[in-house]
Amino acid sequence: MRVVIAGAGEVGYHVAGALYREGVEIAAIDNDAGVLERLRQDFNITTFLGTATDTETLAHAEVGRADLFLAITNYDETNIIARLMAAEAGAAKRIARVKSIVFGEGSSVSDRTYLGIDLIINPYEVAAEHLANLVTHPQVTDFNQFLDDRVLLVRFPIREDSRLAGATVLEFGQDSRIPNTLIALIQQNGQPIIPHAEHRIHAGDRVYFFCEPDRLNALSRYLRLSTAACRRVFINGGGNIGLAVARRLENRTPHVRLMEISEEKCQTLSQLLNRTLVLNVDGTDSLSLKAEGIEHADSFISVTNLDQVNIVSCLLAREYGTPHTIALVKQPEYIPILESRKAVSVGFSPRLLTARKLLRFVRGETVQSFFAFPNSDIELLEMEVTAGARCEERPLVSMKLPVGVLIGAVMRGREIFIPRGQDVLRAGDRVLLIQQRRHRKVTHELFFGASPHGTGGVAAASPAREASQ
Q: What is the reported pLDDT for 86?
């Protein structure tokens, strides 16, 4: 598989890093020599200095033989023109990051073909989608959807009073009060672990679960976390992300207040929003926050262009009693520190969210979706079982999967189930598999037969079909 990436900024860097670890052949184009040097040093990939709309640069990068061309520069016009040129050159599939195109309410991705682009991702809407899910389910600190959005991978904090504090993974699996739910991953001291049955969970851990959407509240109650919906939401920052999340939340939440320091921008926002109260307020002014009733807020989101403003405003909101705070943090390495110190409930990076979304669509004939956990060797694959595979019609317990491999959920037709030891897989089943990369060869041979590259995952899939402001 060969991928050409136009735009080697933060989104391009994270996408290139994930694909590099898959053994994918990558070429990167950028007009900044410094970011290309960073890519060469970190990933040893081929780079080309130039603009993504220069025919000579595209020719040198051999765009015509690319399985996938990603246009993810910071400029919509560049991305659209580069995609047209890549299509003309013969690139098999083209994906663009386009901030100015919105495909209806609630949509962050369009797979309709526009201007020779096979798939368009709007990074503002990606962030808004993520934030709306976190506000709708404030007990959840990470929210991901798979198998046609019918299976969730969600992260919960484990508190001292949680039923899971001190329990083993096996004990949770045997508890009849929470059926069809599976522990997928445990973060202990910042390190993600695929647990074995006797692994013990501690207060302070963060645990990822597989479950269906209609079981989310039951899981929250089991963990002794509130299931109360957010009724009063404050949003600090009336930029593109603030507007996009307000649009989504005003149809889900009774009271949404959007704070923006620019009076001129407030006037524009008032015309674009229906039920949101737009306030000409500085989100770091404690007196203004108090005057607007911050002590009654259920959730506070800060999405200005400045990390320090977002962090300070969240700290002020928490000081006044807001239980749930979310901050946009452009430097993702700070997020675990802010969360562990409880400066914010959740931190997020729009660029990482966009990179993650892009990687969900870099797929092959058997791998429908690819998801890599940051700073770890753990990945999640959404795959289809092929006819004649070694796993077909065999009880899962007989496969003797190694520690570090977990089958999380299965979709058979329209039926969803969390598999147990005596369940069998059939050709055509769509499976969520979470694993350490070192086990790829074993799992690929089980599900598909031997990989021609010996790696499995994205690199063995050909041709390509499918982690910001």
A: 94
